[in-house]
Design a protein that fits this description.
The chain is an alpha+beta fold. The protein has a domain of about 240 residues: Catalase core domain (Catalase HpII,  Chain A, domain 1), CATH 2.40.180.10. Helix content is about 25%, strand content about 15%. The protein has 6 helices and 9 strands. Strands 1, 2, 3, 4, 5, 6, 7, 8 and 9 form a 9-stranded antiparallel β-sheet that branches. A hairpin with a 6-residue loop joins strand 6 and strand 7. Helix 1 packs parallel to helix 2 and helix 2 crosses helix 3. The two termini are about 25 Å apart. The structure holds protoporphyrin IX containing FE (HEM). Protoporphyrin IX containing FE (HEM) binds next to helix 1, strand 2, strand 3, strand 4 and helix 6. Protoporphyrin IX containing FE binds next to helix 1, strand 2, strand 3, strand 4 and helix 6.
Amino acid sequence: MHNFKRPMRLGLIFHIILLTGVTTALHANTSPVGLNTPKELIYPNIDPSLSESLYPNEAATAKQIADIIELSIRKQYAADIALRDAHPKAHGCVRAEFKINETLPQNLIQGAFIPGKTYQAWIRFSNGSSNAKQADIKKDARGMAIKLLAVSGKNLSDEATSTQDFIMINHPVFFANDPARYLSFMQDINSDKFLKKLHIPFALGAKGTWIALNTRNKISNPLQTRYWSMVPYQLGLGTNRQAVKYSARACSTVVSPIPAKPQQNFLRDALRTSLQEIDACMEFLVQPRTSSSMSVEDSMTEWKEDQAPFYKVATIRIPQQVFDTPEQNKFCENLSFTPWHALAEHKPLGAINRMRKVIYDQISRVRHEMNSTERFEP
Ligand code: HEM
């Protein structure tokens, strides 16, 4: 989730790629090198029977956005440790157990959702703003990224990994659908021209601007807010495959008050204090779409819960723990979450997710390369 308040930066580099067909190789470097080096990346195929459709020049636009973000972090972190471009401020990475329900409706028993199975997991809680120093009391989007470990099955990642990531924000819809609009927005926020900033609402359109403003909120504890995947995912394979969205929320509805005098990093403090005292419990929910009028390409329109209910598929137990150590914080920074660390049964759907394949891969490689750190998947 990108934030309007971004330091002024140099303009963009146009990266023009010739495209043919639906499946497109974006990098030509196939030499046998480390995990930080780009290798041939294949733009995702669309699934027309789940009503996916490509936008014009989509793969090239994704690459242009990735190049703008790369330029931006190379400049912003030239003399510092490179952080994520989006969600750079973590409240903490915690160990968790992701326990699938003992029983599930037949249509939800797919991929990682094996009844009774418990996965070990890492969860990273974050703020959305590109400013990692922003005080937690400022309105912002809040992220929850779950990484399940040792998940058996065919993984869609280009890396040899057995992780399944679920990435969510505490708002149900995303502020953009259209790659061209997202590119225009990125050009605006990364420009050092003041007039470009005024153009942002035109780049996003009225609905996108409204969603972007409403995605920013205040919370008292990352364990007590509700998160949504915003964008859809496939569930299952073959003729029974369907489109779903995800959500996660606390098992209890208790919400603590925001402190009267909030410290800069009070959300980290709240997470630390909660987990010093007791185990935390969250529910993981799946929302199968109930009508093809619920679009997989339109991530700006919510699939209303009264028309498409959520089903609980797993309980997330975050055991009592000490997570706020220098070693664990460093480990957390070096992790990479992407929707494309996924089993084929949980394939990401829609233009925003397709573009994220290119963008998250490139940006994770760049920040690891800048920090002279090998990328690795636990
Ligand atoms: C085209 C749209 C998007 C772009 C360009 C984008 C860009 C990014 C980038 C560059 C990162 C950092 C990756 C890394 O360095 O490893 C990131 C992280 C993240 N994004 Fe997005 N994003 C997009 C859409 C979304 C959507 C729809 C969600 C909704 C759930 C989302 C949620 C997150 C979260 C929670 C993180 C932090 C993950 C972590 O803890 O490591 N993003 N995004």
